[in-house]
TrEMBL record:
PANTHER family: DESMOGLEIN FAMILY MEMBER, NEURAL-CADHERIN. Residues 6-58, 59-167, 168-271, 272-310 form the Cadherin domain. The gene is LOC102806119. It comes from the Eukaryota. This is Protocadherin-like wing polarity protein stan-like. It comes from Saccoglossus kowalevskii (Acorn worm). Its main location: membrane. SUPFAM superfamilies: Cadherin-like. It is found in: Membrane.
Length: 321
């Protein structure tokens, strides 16, 4: 206190944020200069008034949220920790409002007062598609009127089963030898699904056309021999296969596999008669035609080509006819 004028001045920095020193109470003493000196006292109360000198502080260094793809507009993003801030100021100086920025931040809306994030309530904005963008890296800014603070937020788009599996080929072409043993792999059918997790877990089925000769591994899509093959009975098969995905809403796709049975030389040629009889006049000139023998072989290609020979020197036979 000034000795003459009575002006009261601060003697140190005052801080409203120090909750124990927001109110001061003391007495002032006035003493005159006469003889004897007389005194008077006055009670003084000083209340500190807050100024906005503190920025808001987020309660987490990073926030994480998730929401399903294809979510309806206005769907709330589920947060691991909801967005909150503290501000050492008081009253309106501690009032905070929030904004959201970053690439594709228009896909979301943040409530300025509560910090709750929802999908944009705007039909003009495209719905969330995990296959397009699976993770959004955005920034939340807290404003208190004088100061700003920012924090990153990562929003994961959860997969839903909205894609059907698709075979890589409309028709597969396989070859297998007719002497292939049971369990021999004929070929592999492969399908792709753009979803993830259980929604992309594929199961393969053989729908028909195999006559019990083939089967498919439900996990790998490997087509394999199920029972003995005989090309001489059936030379080819067209089998129908399907694939389904997992999840709540199941999708399917279909394909065909054309399987050609390759011949092996497993059949001997057979004459059309066990015995041939002919009468031949003596003294016929060499090269005189006698008769024709015929043999057939059910095998294919060179395996079914027949060549003839005789075990005598008195006659000759055309090797091919």
């Amino acid at each position: 206190m000034a000795l003459i004028g009575g002006d009261i001045l601060t003697n140190r920095r005052l801080d409203f944020d120090d909750v124990n020193n927001r109110r001061y109470e003391f007495e002032a003493l006035a003493v005159d200069q006469g003889e004897p000196g007389l005194t008077s006292t006055a009670s003084i109360k000083i209340q500190l008034v807050d100024i906005n000198d503190n920025a808001p502080i987020f309660t987490e260094p990073v926030y994480y949220g998730n929401v399903d793809e294809n979510a309806e507009t206005g769907t709330t993003v589920i947060m691991k920790r909801y967005i909150e801030t503290t501000d050492a100021d008081a009253g309106r100086n501690a009032d905070v409002f929030y904004t959201l920025t970053g690439n594709y931040s228009d896909q979301f809306h943040i409530d300025a007062n509560t910090g709750i994030i929802t999908t944009t309530n705007d039909d003009a904005t495209a719905i969330l598609d995990r296959e397009e963008i699976s993770l959004y890296h955005l920034v939340v800014t807290a404003h208190d009127g004088a100061h700003n603070s920012t924090v990153p937020i990562n929003i994961t788009v959860n997969d839903v089963n909205d894609n059907a599996p698709l075979f890589e080929e409309a028709v597969y072409h396989f070859n297998v030898s007719e002497d292939a043993t049971v369990g021999t792999t004929v070929g592999l059918v492969v399908a792709q699904d753009m979803d993830t997790g259980i929604n992309s877990r594929l199961t393969y089925f053989l729908v028909g056309g195999s006559d019990g000769k083939f089967a498919v591994d439900p996990v790998s899509g490997a087509v394999f021999v199920l029972s003995h093959l005989d090309r001489d009975t059936t030379g080819s098969y067209t089998i129908i296969l399907s694939v389904t995905d997992g999840g709540d809403d199941i999708f399917s796709d279909f394909t065909e596999a054309d399987i050609q049975i390759l011949d092996v030389n497993d059949n001997a040629p057979t004459f059309d008669s066990d015995n041939y009889l002919a009468d031949v006049e003596e003294e016929l000139p060499s090269g005189t035609y006698v008769f024709t023998v015929t043999a057939t072989d059910p095998d294919a290609g060179s395996n079914g080509d027949v060549m003839y020979s005789l075990n005598t020197d008195d006659f000759v036979v055309n090797q091919t006819t």
